[in-house]
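> forwarded from #structure-qc
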């Protein structure tokens, strides 16, 4: 039995690597290979429902429209189409956002053709949610943290927002210790610009607009 698949990937090298992988299998029919989210939506729009891909492999970081937003829109228009994220990233926030958007699975890009085909069968025939082992570990860690936060909430203790990533927690700790962005960047071997972006994300997620408010909130709620 042949499965109809498609992909959205802006990197031409990664796109060609994927195409080479599916040639290994005689069970996969490529419907289209889009270079970004907008192009993917246009390709889907131009197909009759009977010819829509059953599974779309989706990159996350693409120009114009990223993979998460593409999945969110496409699932609302084509609920019968499954989306499997194919990415080099395994950070908590991306997993959480992709699943919320409607992704059926989450694989790392280095997976061989056999794993891709197994994932398709898993999604279409058993209703499974295939994940690379590294992603599955992250998902379990997220579940564990969610349970811990729920327990804290039941006990009346304050909780840190679930979408604060491990890296942001690390930076928050250094902020509480009085370190500036330059010192944090040096310690974590990141650029100052990257650290400032993380700090901006922390402000946004904690709904504050100053370092003093972050430190006060962290001490008040015993987060550090």
């Amino acid at each position: 039995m042949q499965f109809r698949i498609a992909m959205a990937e802006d990197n031409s090298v990664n796109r060609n690597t994927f195409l080479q992988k599916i040639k290994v299998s005689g069970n996969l029919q490529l419907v289209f290979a889009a270079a970004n989210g907008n192009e993917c939506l246009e390709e889907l729009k131009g197909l009759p429902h009977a010819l829509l891909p059953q599974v779309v492999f989706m990159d996350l970081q693409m120009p114009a429209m990223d993979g998460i937003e593409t999945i969110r829109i496409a699932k609302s228009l084509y609920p019968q189409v499954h989306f499997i994220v194919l990415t080099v990233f395994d950070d908590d926030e991306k997993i959480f956002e992709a699943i919320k958007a409607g992704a059926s699975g989450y694989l790392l890009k280095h997976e061989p053709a056999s794993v891709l085909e197994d994932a398709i069968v898993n999604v279409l025939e058993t209703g499974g949610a295939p994940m690379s082992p590294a992603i599955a570990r992250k998902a379990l860690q997220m579940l564990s943290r969610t349970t811990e936060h729920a327990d804290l909430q039941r006990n009346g203790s304050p909780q840190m927002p679930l979408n604060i990533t491990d890296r942001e927690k690390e930076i928050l700790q250094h902020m509480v210790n009085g370190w500036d962005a330059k010192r944090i960047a040096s310690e974590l071997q990141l650029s100052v610009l990257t650290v400032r972006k993380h700090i901006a994300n922390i402000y946004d997620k904690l709904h504050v607009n100053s370092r003093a408010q972050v430190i006060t909130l962290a001490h008040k709620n015993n987060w550090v």
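QC bot note: The mean pLDDT is 84. The radius of gyration is 20 Å.
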